[in-house]
Amino acid sequence: MPLQQVAPVLSNIQIAEGIFxxxxxxKEIAQLARPGQFxxxxxxxGSLPFLRRPFSISHVHxxxxxxxxxxxxxxxxxxxxxxxxxxxxxxxxxxxxxxYEAHFETAILVGGGLGVAPFPLLTRYLKKHSKKITTFLxxxxxxxxxxxxxxxxxxxxxDGSSGFHGTVVSSLESxxxxxxxxxxxxxxxxxxxxxxxxxxxxxxLHIACELSxxxxxxxxxxxxxxxxxxxxxGERKYALVCIEGPTFNCNDIILR
Amino acid sequence: xxxxxxTLRGVEFKNRVLVASGTFGYGNxxxxxxDVNLLGGICTKSLSWKPRDxxxxxxxxxxxxxxxNSIGLANVGVEYFIREKLPYLRTVETVIIAxxxxxxxxxxxxxxxxxxxxxxxxxxxxxxxxPNVKEGGLSFGTDCAKTKEITASLRRxxxxxxxxxxxxxxxxxSEFARAVQxxxxxxxxxxxxxxGMAVDIHKKKPKLSTxxxxxxxxxxxxxxxxxxxxxxxVVSIPIIGIGGIMTAEDALEFLLVGATAVQVxxxxxxxxxxxxxxxxxxxxxxxxxxxxxxxxxxxxxESNKEFSVLQSWL
Lengths: 256, 314
Ligand SMILES: Cc1cc2nc3c(=O)[nH]c(=O)nc-3n(C[C@H](O)[C@H](O)[C@H](O)COP(=O)(O)OP(=O)(O)OC[C@H]3O[C@@H](n4cnc5c(N)ncnc54)[C@H](O)[C@@H]3O)c2cc1C
Ligand SMILES: Cc1cc2nc3c(=O)[nH]c(=O)nc-3n(C[C@H](O)[C@H](O)[C@H](O)COP(=O)(O)O)c2cc1C
Ligand code: FES
Fold this sequence. Notes:
The structure holds 2 protein chains of 2 kinds. Chain A is α/β, with parallel strands linked by helices. Helix content of chain A is 20%, strand content 36%. Chain A is built from 6 helices and 17 strands. Chain A has helices at 27-32, 74-80, 119-128, 168-178, 192-204, 241-244, and strands spanning 3-16, 19-25, 38-42, 53-56, 59-61, 64-70, 87-94, 106-112, 132-139, 153-157, 164-165, 184-189, 208-212, 228-231, 238-240, 247-249, 253-254. Chain A starts with a strand and ends with a strand. In chain B, β7 (95-100), α2 (105-116) and β8 (123-127) form a beta-alpha-beta unit. Chain B is globular. Chain B has a single domain, classed as TIM Barrel. Classes of the chains: A alpha/beta, B alpha/beta. The interface between A and B is medium-sized, with 31 and 37 residues. The complex binds flavin-adenine dinucleotide, flavin mononucleotide and FE2/S2 (inorganic) cluster. The site of flavin mononucleotide has 26 residues of chain B, from loops.
């Protein structure tokens, strides 16, 4: 059950190049949140930007939630300028959580860029359920890596400044060839082209795979029909990312 | 106590704020966030005979003070609606208006007649003005004779309130307003979205998959006010004002230019309880100015009649 709250900013710090960690006070959302869910944030009291912006719940504490974001446009620029004591209007937690309880032994977390955002909370839940974890992170350079509250990290960078030189998906493939990851399930999050590549790899290697999708949203709660993704399940052509996702089994969707 | 209610063909609305079709799902999506019983009414997402998948992504684009959409009337279809969505709506203590969209006169009639047999629908709003579908949609809503024909034909099928939702994408909305009044409509909803577009300069492509879409939100409020005002000059049936309403102040502007009631649309995406807050704000305004019945505000704007809306365009 989602809530709408005006949440005070407890801290807002830059943790990597252009990447911010924003902590908002909300005991209620902190208690309800499950890994893979998101909040929809109103970054202004005025009408620019007009709509809310969706962000994964990165981590939760006793009475606060963490969001991780980078500045891409007006909304995130305004969020970056929020100081301790300012407030933000938050709607959440929204969406369907990752299937962290399902029957598997090793969780393979694969995050491209800010796709790492939901992994700290996911890691906590996976550990609680005694799963083994290996985390693959991809970033542009070593300066863009965020790796706090994660386990067994394998890094890939586009420029080779740290770890594997190449994409996060190719780093997973190369690791897979030389390491044993028993009873695996992939949890992927990142830009759509990366998720498409990951989905192909998972299908090729016969690994169960769940993806958290990005995309345009207006309402985040199923009112507008603005967030379709093509689905292979059932009679309908599209599923709604905001309420039927953002997490999907990779076999159930077609990414274009 | 301020009188907030109004009636339409015997159906009483507890206040003058409804939520607009396509912006409030089927009412149950946000029941934990809003007390929908405090709304004057709920207009359902447009219903068609068969379920519709809707348009491919991208379906929404934010624009200055508004948004473009090309949902393409994605909806569950009338049978599924009756089976899965209507039972909840029956438990809600507010007026339920079924919005109908179709691609032929026959389909409009079939959907309405099937809904007529059900408990829990208080009235109909007919969408002849969706800019986002190939068949029907705007091609009906911009054809005055066709709009009139649909109205007359549906009038014969129901004794419940029949509201026709008009498009602003015509030269003179007043002609359409007059035509549907003559054909027996009980009210008109003014306006549906305004045709618009946005371009991705990096890809050199339209941002929406359908190239053009419907603009909504505060960006269209001045257009909507002028359309309501224009229609109010020529019809005596109630007008439901729609377009960019975010606050009670916005809604009051619509009443003053001639709307009997209003609908809140896009604002629900930002705050699903906007409708409830707008109704509250209208009440406070009435108390502040000693207005005993909000109906007294309808068309109460004082204006210089020399500048009639039609003349001032010439
Ligand atoms: C479920 C979900 C969870 C998300 N979680 C996070 C998160 O944890 N951290 C984070 O930083 N971002 C996340 N995002 C993306 C985030 O919502 C967008 O970055 C944000 O809306 C941008 O807002 P803006 O006003 O700053 O930019 P805008 O002005 O809206 O956009 C600036 C530019 O970025 C592009 N853009 C905007 N949104 C997206 C997007 N979703 N994907 C690709 N390009 C986009 C636009 O086309 C435009 O060119 C998530 C999105 C979804 C749907
Ligand atoms: C995403 C979206 C979907 C809509 N779907 C419908 C619809 O199915 N039927 C309809 O009659 N109007 C539909 N509309 C139009 C609204 O009901 C309303 O007339 C319009 O958005 C203007 O009001 P607003 O500025 O308050 O949103 C839709 C609008 C939006 C933004
Ligand atoms: S964002 Fe509105 S339905 Fe998904």
